[in-house]
Automatic annotation (TrEMBL):
SUPFAM superfamilies: Outer membrane efflux proteins (OEP) (SSF56954). Its main location: membrane. The keyword Lipoprotein applies. It is a lipid-anchor. This is Toluene efflux pump outer membrane protein TtgI.
Amino acid sequence: MKTYQRRYSLLVVGALLFLSGCKLMRPVEQASGIKTPPAFADQSDSTGIGSIQWRSFFQDQQLVALIDTALQQNLDLRMAAQRIEQARTNILIAQGAMLPAVTGEISGGGRKFGDYTMDGVGNYDTNFSDNIDADRRLPAPFLPDYFVGLRSSWEIDIWGKLKTQKKAAYTRFLASEKARQAIVTGLIAQIASSYYELIALDAELNIIRKNIILQQSAVETVKIQKEGGRANELGVRQLTAQLLNTQSLEFEIQQKITETENNLNLLLGRFPQPIARGTAQQQTFPQTVVTGIPANMLKRRPDIQQAQLDLLANYSEQQAAQLAFLPSLNITAFLGFNAFKSNLLFSPGSIAYNALGGLVGPLVNRKALKAGQKRSEAASLEALYAYNKSVLNGFQEVSTSLKKIENTKRINDFKTQEVEVLQQAVATSKDLFLTGYASYLEVITAQRSVLEAELNLTEVQKQQFLGLIELYRSLGGGWE
């Protein structure tokens, strides 16, 4: 009867464990990501500029050489490589958790049992037995214990918890590689932007120096006019003040060039030095820009891919946190030499071994497991929102860059015409001033206007290149 009751109890416990296991083994429902539009604005081509290799996208060989240097020496990339190695070790840790752990042990100790305890009385009485020889007599009153051997522990992954944790570690490793790729895309875009910034500053410096020569000529002219009685000291001073202001702009631009070069050298992982570069006239700008379909952007942008992998990793960790409520099957064993006398430790009779297996599961006070489950659920939702945000951010960047390229192209056409008109106005004002039909104020105004217009045109041309670089980066280009 007792045997039947024991079997019945075991059957009930086993059934409860099975039912709870079936409930917890149900897959965790993963919320779906954001739905993306089928195309960017009016563009529907399947292949965009993001698929172009960066060596082909950038035609300036001096810029290509700078990017090559940065990919070899940039410190952010080197740190990212070490983060990848850290993520790789997490895979090894997860793999190790699925295998038996075997440790070697050499230990020694002892104990004195109380005289009025079961062990104390038993040990005392044993020494009077006729069935034991001198080697088996227990030392008294202090009982030593020596052990040399191997101990092993192994958690059998019957529910797939450890496998799920390994999957999460591997997914995070892939995410760390995508993070490095995102740094590469950002680095290439940053170097190209700084390079075009330098080229634009060079162009501004040439414009300022050209205007300095023009304004110096105007000052000399007004001085001659003053000596001939056709101008006064006020005109000389105002034209001279304009010249001094333009000369100060030259040094402001030189300082900006130094700062930009130093920032670029920092990206290249080297100390400050001059940056070899081309001219604005040598740079090319494509007439048409193709973005491709959004699906390609989602596949190519490393930050979006990283967010997606983080989402999958959190999903796996959420499953592992749920499986932690199930009993775990643990096996422990040892094999070695065990004796209470050191001179008998390695004798054949001292060989000892043990093996024990059992199911261990949480029953009471599972708050820590419940907290871990809630934390993993919150982390999974956070990862989903981060993924959705990265997709929205990608679309926003592509849309903004497209409009920037389109609008700056139109602005460039108007600014080019403005500069041509103002250059003609400067020449006309100078001729009229020499013949007495225009005042020096009109000459100053014309010169100031053409300087501002030429600098604005240079800025617009720079923004065209920066917009193209940003679009290339936004479409996931540059990480190969």
